[in-house]
Amino acid sequence: MQKNMQVPLLDLRAQYAQLKDEILAAVAEVLETQRCIGGPKVEALEKQVAAVSDCRFAVGVSSGTDAILNALMSLEIGPGDEVITTPFTFFATAGCIHRVGARPVFVDIDARSFNIDTAQIEAAISEKTRAIIPVHLFGQMADMDPIVALAERHNLAVIEDAAQSISSTYKGKKAGSVGTCGCLSFFPSKNLGGIGDGGMVVTNDESLYERLKLMRNHGGHPKYYHKYVGANFRLDPIQAAALSVKLPHLDRWSEARRRNAAYYDKKFAGSVVRTPAILPECVSIYNQYVIRAARRDELLEHLREKQVGCEIYYPLPLHRQECFAYLGHRQGDFPVSEQAAAEVLALPIYPELTDEMKDYVVRTVLEFYAD
């Protein structure tokens, strides 16, 4: 019988060890030049990420959250407006809608993909609706064709929350390239993660691009002349330098995650574990590998006792969060999201996992259900 081993949910040190010298040199170059705001490092990364996303333009910002906030502000969405999104996502999606003074309008998720249920969107559209924010959750894009069709019919913007899905595809189209714009996150745990916070907005709309650039710098150009009331959303060139080192490896890392996911899928086949459902029109980057598990909380404790990293994404849907009580929702309003919140559990999926580590994760999960 194999002894216990430690398998973290994510091991960023393993990735860093491969690129340490390049990252240190890139960061040192920024420090030597003392060009610490904007500049060539940011501009270079913007061009690289735009290309990866099949978009004409990209605007580096300070986080994935600020990418969404900048998009909403640049589209002039504010008090009195409504924005449709999902209650099963990271807080920033709806938090940014609230912060600009608009009202989040939730639509339940599809039970297979965890992404917004497109069949329910139209019923949520009102005369106040200005935008739809589909979330490409866990690395898989939402079903974009019906969303875009609805948006065109009702004259709505589509802001893709692609924080977890850079370079993923839907019918061959890259995340961020299908809607009005796409919002990316470079939080360290992402497939393309920085050495701190960072984000980007990608778009094919040149006029929106120009406004996004102004809004990230207090709405001003030239210096001290302000056309809009923007904010400080600038991407740090130190982050841009590190990300430019990592970006050429993104496809390789994502492919390794897909191989790891396929390995898990095969090992869990025929068991009580429900593995991720990737829709045939999508290629996922597996930012997370999320199973549905009976007795999830007990399994969580079992895995942690056995030193297997795991995490619940997300334990409480947004319509049940205290800060959104003013929306008037109750338990049962979005049953698919609520069921997901009670069952989901993310397992280690990062590229540097060995077969021995993956086998230990699988065995530890299955032994829990064998008891």
Ordered list of secondary-structure elements with their pairings:
Layout: H1 12-33, H2 40-52, E1 57-61, H3 64-74, E2 82-85, H4 92-99, E3 103-106, H5 121-124, E4 129-132, H6 144-154, E5 157-161, E6 169-170, E7 173-174, E8 181-185, E9 199-203, H7 206-215, H8 237-246, H9 250-268, E10 282-283, E11 289-292, H10 296-305, H11 335-343, E12 344-347, H12 355-370
Parallel strand pairs: 2-3, 2-4, 4-5, 5-8
Antiparallel strand pairs: 1-9, 6-7, 6-10, 8-9, 11-12
Describe this structure in words.
This protein has helices at 12-33, 40-52, 64-74, 92-99, 121-124, 144-154, 206-215, 237-246, 250-268, 296-305, 335-343, 355-370; strands spanning 57-61, 82-85, 103-106, 129-132, 157-161, 169-170, 173-174, 181-185, 199-203, 282-283, 289-292, 344-347. A 7-stranded mixed beta sheet has the order 1-9-8-5-4-2-3, with helices on both faces. A 3-stranded antiparallel beta sheet has the order 7-6-10, with no helix packed on it. With 371 residues, it is of the alpha/beta class. It contains 12 helices and 12 strands. The chain folds into 2 domains: 13-107 and 114-248, Aspartate Aminotransferase, domain 2; 250-370, Aspartate Aminotransferase, domain 1, CATH 3.90.1150.
